[in-house]
Amino acid sequence: MSDVEADGAKANGASAEGTKADEANLQDWVGRTEEASDQAYPTPARALAATLDQAGVDAGVGKPLPELWHWLYFLPIVPAGEIGPDGHPKRGGFLPPIALERRMWASGRYVFHDRVRVGDVLHKTSKITRIAEKQGNTGRMVFVTVKHTVRSGRGPAVEEEQDIVYLPMPAAFTPPPPTPAPENPAWSEPVALDPVLLFRFSALTFNGHRIHYDLPYARETEKYPGLVLHGPLQALLLLEAARRHAPDRMPARYTFRAVYPLFGHDRLTLMGVARPDGGHDLFTVNGDGHVGMQATVAWAANER
Q1: In terms of Cα–Cα distance, which of 265, 261, 234, 283 is closest to 177?
Q2: How far apart are CA 116 and CA 233, in angstroms?
Q3: Could you state, in order of their start, the residue ranges of all structural domains in the chain?
Q4: β-bridge partners, 140
């Protein structure tokens, strides 16, 4: 998870010739698939419930897991000798060997068909569906879209599209233009951030990216002003808050997009705004009133 993040990481000493060859062959990776199996064991669910301070989650065998908690499974487990300098698995494998140094989970789109239950044997099919190159303010960017389909013995459970963006390493931290928080949210919740929360979430998702727990690395190498708050953790916190404010509803679809980096030293607030279609727009907001992540949840017609 990258952040629940897919595998692939920073290149070491890639030559200009090798970089050009990689770029020329990127489209050859479109259509590549990968299969994986796992089981929804109860211990990771209990640990995430404790990490989020949610005593009401029942992780007994057969109990349904909250939506997005399937991120606790299908983890990118590789030997220590195959870890790159940023903490991610070395480049190669399923994802293309893009030579840009920085990688982030930019956005995601979800359809929930059936709830994953504790004890379920799960199967996941992953497919690279799109690779697109763009020019941004910081230079060349490459977006890789991966579609994951998670199934249990009952049939499809979750369809997920994950957009991963690759960027050059900046010389200094230059944030994008901020988006202001909504003025009159339907609800607003503060969240206490600390390094322990970031570390525990990294551990639960087997996310070794050092920007989330190694402050000298985050500052000196990737040029961030502090430990970076995971995109998936923000997405999870938002959906959990939305479910608390609509306890009788079930998410049918969920989308999120990171628009501004948030950090472990930030003062975090979760906000929700009702939509005319019955869903909710969701926002993580820092102490300066800048939106970090935008998300939208659409509720199923049936109640829980």
Answers
A1: 261
A2: 19
A3: 16-303
A4: 135
- Could you give the CA distance from residue 294 to residue 255 in angstroms, rounded to a whole number? 8
Return the biggest CA–CA distance within the chain.
57
Q: Write out pLDDT tens, residues 32-62.
A: 999 999 999 999 999 999 999 988 889 999 9
CATH architecture for segment(s) 16-303: Roll (3.10)
**183 Cβ neighbours under 8 A, 6+ residues apart:** none
303: tokens are 């109640």
Structural tokens at position 51? 């990490």
For residues 102 and 11, give the distance between their C-alpha atoms in angstroms, rounded to a whole number: 9
Is residue 292 a contact partner of residue 285, using CB atoms and an 8 Å limit?
yes
pTM, entire model? 0.89
Any residues with CB less than 8 A from the CB of 147 and at least 6 apart, and which?
Answer: 126, 127, 129, 159, 160, 161, 162
What is the CA angle 38-39-41, rounded to 5?
A: 135
**Opening angle at CA 136, ends 131 and 138, nearest 5:** 115
Residue linked to tokens 């909504």: 182
Residue the block writes with tokens 């202001």: 180
